[in-house]
Amino acid sequence: PSSLFFSLSLSTQLLSCNNLLAEKVEQLMEWSSRRSVIRMNGDKFRRFVKAPPRNYSVIVMFTALQPQRQCSVCRQANEEYQVLANSWRYSSAFSNKLFFTIVDYDEGADVFQQLNMNSAPTFMHFPPKGKPKRADTFDLQRIGFAAEQLAKWIADRTDVHIRVFRPPNYSGTIALALLVSLVGGLLYLRRNNLEFIYNKTGWAMAALCVVFAMTSGQMWNHIRGPPYAHKNPQNGQVSYIHGSSQAQFVAESHIILLLNAAITMGMVLLNEAATSKGDVGKRRIICLVGLGLVVFFFSFLLSIFRSKYHGYPYR
């Protein structure tokens, strides 16, 4: 009789557990049919993400989207997150094994406190069984928050492969067409005098612009899609320079571009002071200005390098 009672009790618990799981999955599927990203407060998070039973993975974006938070990075990351969630929702592989959710600080501050989270945005994966591991937190600072990078991370954690579909963007095509039209119109207007094409200074300036763009990390930004800057939601402090040598912010590349341009201008002025045949006093002033630009801005550049590569100067 005791073994029979134990079997009946176990069967009842399993049936209850299966019913609860079915209700949770049905509710999540219903929410997903309305919106690709499910908004959650503290109660929903604890019930559908933290509490067992679960046979599905949940991707949670912890963010602060309210205007008073002034988190521009959160809005940019949210746009990429929406693209990824929509790609999954409307793909042929869509199933109840993966759900995308979002927890806003102003709607779930208790969740942030429970997880000891003090920065946003943050992406986390909650597996069907067990607690999240270190790799279940997306390394946003190093990789950026592009939808394609998030999709790779999700595939690694869940074996669910998502092909990212972006809405068509014709701004690049329009800009290229306008540029070609502008250049073509300029050449047509100056068709009787095309000496400016052979202007060495003009070509040198164009070459320098390309060099500044590449050496400041613009290509890295294009590939990785890092945030423009980082704002700490706790104290509101904005960081424009990334503290690691493995990553950077978009604002950081702009700062490096301007520093390199200022140093180059100083070198040009020094060369002009040394090679020109004008008034000695004027050449001395140009030399001092050029030297000042090189010393000041190169020192600034070294200070940024020191903040990213700890231990510099190397001995």
TrEMBL record:
Ranges that cross the membrane: 170-189, 201-220, 255-273, 285-305
Main location as per UniProt: endoplasmic reticulum
Membrane topology listed for this record: Multi-pass membrane protein
SUPFAM superfamilies, alphabetized: Thioredoxin-like (SSF52833)
Involved pathway(s): Protein modification; protein glycosylation
GO biological process, one term: magnesium ion transport
Keywords: Disulfide bond, Endoplasmic reticulum, Magnesium, Membrane, Signal, Transmembrane, Transmembrane helix, Transport
GO cellular component: oligosaccharyltransferase complex
CDD domains: TRX_family
Record-stated family: Belongs to the OST3/OST6 family.
Listed PANTHER family: DOLICHYL-DIPHOSPHOOLIGOSACCHARIDE--PROTEIN GLYCOSYLTRANSFERASE-RELATED, TUMOR SUPPRESSOR CANDIDATE 3
Official protein name in the record: Tumor suppressor candidate 3
Species classification: Eukaryota, Metazoa, Chordata, Craniata, Vertebrata
